[in-house]
Amino acid sequence: MMASQAACSSSRCPCNPSTSGRLSARCHASTLTACIRKLPTCNLSGSLSLHCQRRRGLSLRAATEGSEVYKGAFGEWSVDESDVKEVLGYRAGLSVAAAALLMDTLLMWSPLDGSSLAFLRNLENAIALLGAAGFGVSLYLIHIYVTPIKRTLQLLWAAGVIGGTTLMVTQPQPITEYVASHQGAVWAVGPLFAAVTGVAFKEGVCYGKPECAALFFLTPALLLGHLSGAVAEGPETALLAAFVATSVLFAARKYTQAIKDDIGDKSVFQFQAMSEEEQERLLAERRQRQPQEY
């Protein structure tokens, strides 16, 4: 009997809360039952143990940051699994967009005509659509406190996608080559890149990243320079190369940030999701607890 109790309280027990973090309720309940009955089943062998391990593996990323509680403007909050999925989806969308931009630019610059790889030019439009779709996912998942700003970025993206798709359907050239050789085509795809500028501004202001500041200036400089014809071919090529490289760097460096950084103050979004009555009730409670802040 004493041995069973010692085994269940041992730090070596895989379902001991002190060593396993946020395990499922089922795992905790089974362990507690085993300990009460003083049975040597603390290892939870078999299907139950496998269930607990799988559940822990799936939620490990969320538990790592979700175990910490942060103070927000409207209360405490923590990171959960849905937050992790949203942030990773946001970053994955940026990665897809940057990769598509890089691939299309390289295809446009590559001397493929007459070679066995000339067929790759037929993929330029599909790659461009894939990149636009990835960026659209990011704009859907991005965390911005002011909803009208987020909707504006999404509308700009939609306008750019419609304009770009129209060029793909009506013009024989791949869209990248058509825009490169027709200055006025910037009007069709420009709104999407205006959304890129907006995201770069948001990321630069929130995190002070130098590549975001560079992207904020490079994007309009490249498009307006091409539209107006004020930039010669050589400098324009350099601007395009810098824009592509900065976009790839921006997407890659997103993965170096903590998940919570891309969430922002979650309590703000939770507050915005409340009804007016719930908001007033919460504010009244906070005034009573912390009158010096109001």
UniProtKB/TrEMBL annotation:
Alphabetized Pfam families for the sequence: DUF2301
One GO location term (cellular component): chloroplast
Record carries keyword Transmembrane: yes
Transmembrane segments: 88-107, 127-146, 153-172, 184-201, 213-232, 238-256
InterPro entries: DUF2301 (IPR019275)
Assigned keywords, A-Z: Membrane, Transmembrane, Transmembrane helix
The keyword Manganese is assigned to this record: no
Protein name: Integral membrane protein
Species for this entry: Coccomyxa viridis
